[in-house]
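Field log, afternoon session.

UNIT: design team B
ACTIVITY: writing a sequence onto a fixed backbone
BACKBONE:
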């Protein structure tokens, strides 16, 4: 009956508060759980999977490629580890999976590490190696390569002058393949050069791949990093060096340039784009390599070798 205050559990007051049977928890139960998290943070959402995939890819790149200053590099897999040790790539630690199948490659790698000395051997469980390599196929072997210690561009010329020699330096403009860098280092060593200069950004660095291609010569020929390549070349000019750029449309052939017999910096651009505009404008000379066979271009390692040979010939 309407207005019957004797009905059980009927509210007889407008005062808010806990109701009969709620145990005092109903008001707390109405409190929200905070703002809805973004899609990239919600487990199972497509944006969350995309975000995780990007993070994993970034981590893999940091493992397989040296990032910034002070970052070590990991060489993973039985054959890559063996080849790195065989080719003299510097290393500080060799991680080997516990209970690994002791095949020929594993035995050879362990023997090389022991013969070289200075490489610590660490046995680790598979989950730990998986974590270190971010899921890469390490096959139970991981080699840690220390960060390369780059020289300053000014040091290369100063060291040559201190030895009573005319500096012979190669600068690379836009070379992104570490194997090309390693090949240039090898040529510089072979023809008595004093070092290689690379830009700090958007350029190949001294990774394990560059070390391998250099065939160990990177231990004798310094590589310098320039924050700004154009300014580094201008600094060389002020120090008395001639800057010679290689270009398909160069005004002079390599063999006709007497300046190669003196203090010189040879600038090599990428095979596709050549020298960048500012670097090209900074060069004192732009020279070309005669190619009667009709090839359109040479890769950086070969081009540098041709010019270095001519420079070494003029120096006697």
């Amino acid at each position: 009956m309407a207005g019957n205050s004797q009905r059980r559990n009927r509210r007889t007051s407008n005062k808010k508060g806990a109701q009969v049977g709620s145990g005092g928890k109903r008001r707390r139960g109405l409190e929200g759980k905070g703002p809805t998290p973004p899609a990239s943070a919600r487990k199972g959402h497509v944006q969350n999977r995309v975000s995780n995939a990007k993070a994993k890819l970034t981590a893999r790149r940091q493992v397989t490629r040296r990032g910034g200053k002070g970052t070590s590099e990991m060489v993973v897999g039985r054959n890559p580890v063996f080849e790195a040790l065989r080719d003299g790539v510097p290393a500080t630690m060799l991680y080997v999976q516990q209970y690994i199948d002791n095949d020929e490659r594993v035995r050879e790698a362990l023997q090389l590490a022991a013969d070289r000395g200075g490489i610590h051997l660490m046995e680790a469980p598979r989950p730990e190696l998986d974590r270190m390599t971010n899921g890469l196929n390490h096959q139970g072997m991981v080699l840690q390569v220390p960060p390369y210690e780059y020289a300053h561009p000014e040091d290369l010329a100063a060291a040559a002058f201190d030895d009573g020699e005319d500096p012979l330096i190669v600068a690379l403009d836009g070379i992104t393949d570490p194997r090309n860098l390693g090949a240039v280092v090898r040529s510089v060593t072979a023809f008595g050069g004093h070092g290689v200069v690379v830009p700090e950004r958007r350029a190949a660095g001294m990774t394990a791949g560059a070390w391998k291609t250099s065939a160990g010569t990177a231990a004798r020929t310094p590589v310098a990093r320039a924050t700004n390549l154009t300014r580094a070349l201008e600094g060389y000019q002020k120090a008395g060096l001639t800057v010679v750029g290689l270009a398909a449309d160069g005004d002079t052939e390599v063999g006709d340039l007497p300046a190669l017999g003196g203090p010189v910096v040879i600038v090599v651009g990428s095979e596709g784009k050549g020298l960048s505009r500012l670097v090209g404008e900074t060069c004192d000379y732009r020279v070309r390599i005669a190619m009667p066979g009709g090839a359109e271009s040479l890769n950086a390692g070969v081009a540098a070798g041709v010019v270095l040979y001519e420079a070494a010939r003029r120096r006697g």
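LOG NOTE: Residues 77 and 138 are 4 Å apart (CA to CA).
NEXT ACTIVITY: expression trials, pending approval
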